[in-house]
């Protein structure tokens, strides 16, 4: 009887351990999805992060000496004829005040417009000036129907972190991007991008509550006023949570192994 009970416990422990290993491998694969992105020749980035909403990812290189931020944003439009957008907000953590890059397909090629999002009104069919010099604007199509948006922004000296937003839309009519949906994922599409100092390089999500983008409608784009530099203030450490999450699967496996060895 004792032998049969011990064998049963062994089989159960083995099945539990196998299930844990499957979950750990799935979590590890999801966490590192951005690293599998293959860019065209001549485009490479030092850091990437899988963003916490809309299945998007951001790749970036920050040159502190030149205050230059080069990015590649990848996301799938809400429909095949839709658009994707990424931007930074020097004045808040929501959509209003963001300096945005937006890409959509026009015929056989992609168009990239810049918008200063000053209010909740329809966008214009043409770019509006933004607060940061933007160069190298381009877009192409990646695997799985994702659109990849490229650009380099000249940031103020001393900027160590910046709020960023991203979004996807379902339609473009006569060159005008239609407003995006306002589901929870859309409202959660924002975060803090740490460029230098404590916590860099990490991309940590900002709190979703209180986002002014919860208002309905699209956003109005106008000429911006230049933001003031951060003055070299240290940003709060970011990325501690992601470090904890990365190590948790390993701890689970070790604990499972200890339990299994104790049983057998």
How would you describe this structure in keywords?
264 residues; alpha+beta; 7-stranded antiparallel beta sheet; 22% helix; globular; DOMON_domain; DOMON domain-containing protein
Give me a quick take on this structure.
The protein has 264 residues and is of the alpha+beta class. It has three helices and 14 strands. The longest helix has 30 residues.
Write up this protein:
Residues 204-242 are annotated as: Disordered. The protein has 264 residues and is an alpha+beta fold. The protein has a domain at 34-194: Immunoglobulin-like (Sandwich). Helix content is 22%, strand content 32%. It has three helices and 14 strands. The chain has helices at residues 2-31, 184-187, 240-263; strands at residues 47-50, 57-63, 68-75, 83-89, 99-106, 109-119, 134-141, 147-154, 161-169, 172-173, 176-177, 190-194, 202-205, 220-221. A seven-stranded antiparallel beta sheet has the order 13-12-9-4-5-6-14, with no helix packed on it. Helix 1 (2-31) runs antiparallel to helix 3. The longest helix is centred in the N-terminal third of the chain and has 30 residues, at 2-31. The chain is globular. The two termini are 16 Å apart. 34% of the residues are buried. Mean pLDDT is 73; it is low at 17-31, 202-219 and 222-261.
């Amino acid at each position: 009887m004792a032998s049969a009970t011990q064998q049963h416990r062994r089989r159960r422990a083995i099945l539990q351990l196998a299930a844990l290993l499957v979950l750990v491998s799935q979590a590890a694969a999801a966490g590192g999805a951005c690293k599998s992105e293959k860019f065209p020749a001549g485009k490479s980035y030092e850091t990437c992060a899988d963003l916490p909403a809309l299945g998007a990812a951001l790749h970036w290189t920050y040159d502190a000496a030149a205050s230059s931020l080069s990015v590649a944003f990848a996301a799938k439009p809400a429909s095949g004829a839709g658009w994707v957008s990424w931007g930074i907000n020097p004045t808040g953590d929501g959509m209003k005040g963001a300096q945005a890059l937006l890409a959509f397909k026009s015929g056989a090629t992609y168009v990239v417009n810049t918008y200063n999002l000053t209010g909740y009104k329809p966008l214009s069919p043409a770019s509006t000036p933004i607060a940061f010099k933007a160069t190298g604007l381009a877009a192409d199509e990646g695997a799985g129907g994702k659109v990849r948006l490229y650009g380099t922004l000249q940031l103020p000296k001393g900027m160590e972190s910046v709020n960023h937003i991203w979004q996807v839309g379902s339609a473009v009519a006569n060159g005008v991007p239609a407003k995006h949906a306002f589901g929870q994922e859309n409202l959660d599409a924002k975060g803090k991008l740490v460029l230098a100092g404590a916590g860099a390089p990490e991309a940590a999500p900002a709190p979703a509550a209180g986002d002014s983008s919860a208002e309905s409608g699209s956003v109005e784009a106008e000429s911006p006023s230049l933001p003031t530099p951060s003055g070299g203030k240290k940003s709060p450490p970011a990325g501690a949570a992601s470090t904890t999450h990365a190590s948790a699967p390993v701890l689970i496996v070790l604990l499972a192994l200890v339990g299994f060895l104790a049983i057998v």
